[in-house]
Design a protein that fits this description.
The structure is a homotetramer. By secondary structure, chain A is an alpha+beta fold. Chain A has a single domain, classed as Hotdog Thioesterase (Thiol Ester Dehydrase, Chain A, Roll). In chain A, the strands form two sheets. In chain A, strands 1-3-4-5-2 form a five-stranded antiparallel beta sheet. A two-stranded antiparallel ribbon of chain A has the order 6-7. The radius of gyration of chain A is 16 Å and the shape is elongated. The first copy, chain A, starts with a helix and ends in a 9-residue tail after the last strand. Strand 2 of chain A pairs antiparallel with strand 2 of chain D, so a sheet runs across the interface.
Chain lengths: ~170, ~170, ~170, ~170
């Protein structure tokens, strides 16, 4: 997990652009504590991730269907900072935190859309797989979209992707 | 929809045995009204249906995987009679209400497991499909398990399955 | 259930305006049949219903929170006509099919957003409850929003709401 | 997060007994990758946690309802090691990893029930809250059930709970 988890700084951007979507909290997403049930944040992360890809120029559906590239989740983490309530509008920010040809790590922040209060933050780590769910490598044409090959460290110095491989 | 829907008698058994499972209501299943969210009853119906099949001698997973037989839902209905609450134990009763080689209709009752109060009742109607989701026919060896070929009417007289085809 | 269910014409509009929303199918909503899992359509109906209310001038959150008016589901029905697939954009149309001071029935159609193919249609029937989930009556100021007191029949002739009470 | 997260040893037991439940994977839980969708593991963790509490002598429903003690999730983490498939029977092991009067951290392992292959592991961290979701302290009578006041370190030496407070 390295540097990031130790410092707890989920929201430090590492160069690649952040994509933002909005979502209105559903009744289905609440529980009897009158707040959003915790597993639903992982669905919001999926929403953010899919739209990040689309905005970057890669429709995830086509990556799977046409190129047989699957991003299988190997880790998910969410820290819940303040509850989200029914019918509240939230913003989900998504960016790529780390990436190399075999792995992409997305990071997320969930905020109240009207006052920007931070509600939750987290990350998901994905390995690139083929249709049989065997580990594979990201085809060259997708690499620039996720910043593969130009991985940034928090100090924004660009380092060769190979140097990040020990992290996986 | 015929006789059944008009009369509202969901729980009339038509010959084939009823299978019963138990389920403990999850926090995830509640909403801020402090009761189980309505879509979750359809998941409970799935639970009941899968265990009905297993008890009848057909593991649904194997029907799909080995025989390419898919039961695609074409209609679902649920009437909510009394709310179900967190951590309550419920019973889900499942039986086959109508069946012929191209269609199976399951019916369900959800009851409180300790006092047998009726909480909900409903049905799901499925057409038999192949792996490409094209309409197909139930292989002969599965037919007896679902009562195909010996369809019963509410008066328990056995009628030829062909006579029921106009209902679909 | 009366006229509607017998004829199977879910999509006949009865006067009150239809509200339309769009939704992009999530990975979370699919199942291993590679189509949207059937219970999720009931969540889409909730989305449609909430936005119908908002467009009509009643935020459902405030109905509950400020006026103690809960619309408890007593029946849900969905007919699945064609599968919905991952990342497909769907339209959900919502309108009020029947309404009187103690009950509101919403109807829905789900269509592919690009070619308007009908994917599913259904309805949900709600009784008006107070905070203790006891049957109640819709406060006067909400009635016009749902067409209560001016119920229409399919021929668009306006009839007194009282005349519709026998249906409940 | 301390020692545990850095070393990645999720499954080291720290003294308190482990509780095990079994669950049959539902169709509803799969996605079009033909494996269980990642958010559903957090629901399995809830199942494990509720049954851990019941086995320890505390029904979580009653903790909330009668004592106004809510365990609000502040962090969830899951590492996905091997996919879970439809109709597979899984075991969910749950134990308390860390606990003091204001915080309980549960840890989990998900295994295939027939061959004990590890499928996933994770943890959830909860703060003790009152009915208004304000931070509170675990009532004395619940403390022994969660091992509060006799926190163990991985070497099984019992340390005073106060010494662990800096971790929160």
């Amino acid at each position: 997990m390295g540097e990031r988890a130790r410092s707890g700084e989920y929201n430090r951007r590492v160069g690649i652009k952040t994509h933002e979507i909005r979502h209105r909290v559903l009744y289905a997403e609440t529980d009897q504590m009158r707040v959003v049930y915790y597993a639903n944040y992982l669905i919001w992360m999926e929403m953010g991730r899919a739209e990040f890809c689309r905005a970057a120029g890669a429709r995830y559906r086509d990556m799977e269907r046409e190129d047989g590239v699957l991003l299988a989740v190997v880790e998910a983490n969410c820290r819940y900072i303040a509850p989200a309530f029914y019918d509240e509008e939230v913003k989900i920010e998504t960016w790529v935190e780390r990436a190399h040809p075999r792995m992409i790590q997305f990071a997320y922040r969930v905020l109240n859309a009207s006052d920007d209060r931070l509600l939750a933050e987290g990350y998901t780590k994905h390995i690139v797989c083929d249709r049989e769910l065997k580990p594979s490598r990201l085809p060259a044409r997708y690499r620039p979209l996720f910043g593969v090959g130009e991985l940034r460290r928090p100090d924004s110095s660009i380092i060769p992707a190979a140097a990040a491989l020990e992290d996986l």
